[in-house]
Write a structure and sequence with these properties.
The chain is mostly helical and 226 residues long. It has helices spanning 23-32, 42-58, 63-87, 94-109, 112-128, 136-148, 175-223, and strands at residues 155-160, 165-170. The N and C termini lie far apart (87 Å).
C-alpha cells in the first residue's frame, strides 16, 4: 500500500494505483490531454467558426476549400484502408484501429465542410490563445473532442433528476486513439490554420492602419479650416 499524494499543486488526494496523479486528475488527463486542461466549449469557438464561415462564403470559388476538403477525404481513405487491412487479417495496434473507426464514423455522420471548419477553428484558437491550452497534447485532445462532437454516434443522453430533463454527454475516447487522430487532423489542417491566423492578423493590422490614416486626414482637414 502506497501513501504518495497527487503532485498537482493544491491537491492532497492520494496517487492512483497506476499513476502519480490522483484518480480525478488522472481522469482529466485521459479525457483532455493534461491534468489541468478544461474542455474547450462551442461558445469559445464561436468567433473562429464565424470567421471561417464568413471567409468561405466570401470566397466560395477559392481552391483552398477544395484542397482542405480533399485532405479530409484522403484521411477518410487512409482510415478505410487501415480498417480493410485489419478485416483482411493484418495485425494492427488497437489505438490505430480505434482512430480509424472514429474517422469512418465521422465521415458517415458529419459534412466535410463542418469537419474542416471545426478543425481550423480549434487550431486557430490554439494559435491565437496559447494560454488556453496546457500543452500540445491538450490541443490535440480538444481538437478531437470538438470534431467528434459533430457526430451523434459519439454522444449519449441520460435523465438528470436534479435538472429534470435529458442531458447530453459525450462518451470518453481511447486516449491513445485520440493522440493518433489528433496527429492526423493536425497534419491535414495545421498549416492552413496557421496561414489563416496570420491572414487575420494582417487584415486586422491593415484595418487599424487605415483607421489611423483616416483620422490623420481628418485632423489635417480640420486644421486647414483655421
Amino acid at each position: 500500500m502506497h501513501h504518495n499524494t497527487c503532485p498537482v499543486p493544491g491537491c492532497a488526494a492520494p496517487s492512483s494505483r497506476f499513476s502519480p496523479l490522483c484518480a480525478a486528475h488522472r481522469r482529466t488527463q485521459a479525457r483532455h490531454g493534461h491534468y489541468a486542461q478544461t474542455a474547450l466549449d462551442l461558445h469559445e469557438l464561436k468567433p473562429y467558426l464565424a470567421g471561417i464561415s464568413k471567409r468561405r462564403k466570401a470566397n466560395p470559388a477559392s481552391p483552398a476549400w477544395a484542397i482542405l476538403d480533399n485532405r479530409w477525404a484522403a484521411l477518410v481513405s487512409t482510415a478505410g484502408g487501415i480498417l480493410a487491412e485489419i478485416e483482411a487479417g493484418r495485425a494492427f495496434s488497437r489505438p490505430g484501429k480505434v482512430a480509424a473507426e472514429y474517422v469512418r464514423k465521422l465521415a458517415q455522420h458529419a459534412a466535410p465542410e463542418d469537419i474542416v471548419g471545426v478543425s481550423l477553428a480549434v487550431l486557430i484558437c490554439a494559435r491565437k490563445q496559447p494560454h488556453r491550452f496546457k500543452s500540445d497534447r491538450a490541443v490535440s485532445f480538444q481538437l478531437v473532442r470538438r470534431v467528434r462532437g459533430l457526430a451523434d454516434t459519439h454522444a449519449g443522453t441520460y435523465w438528470s433528476p436534479k435538472d429534470k430533463r435529458m442531458k447530453r454527454v459525450y462518451r470518453d475516447a481511447c486516449p491513445q486513439a485520440v493522440e493518433i487522430l489528433g496527429r492526423w487532423l493536425q497534419d491535414a489542417f495545421g498549416v492552413a490554420a496557421i496561414q489563416l491566423a496570420d491572414l487575420q492578423d494582417r487584415e486586422k493590422a491593415d484595418h487599424e492602419a487605415a483607421k489611423r490614416a483616416e483620422l490623420e486626414r481628418l485632423s489635417e482637414a480640420i486644421a486647414a479650416m483655421a
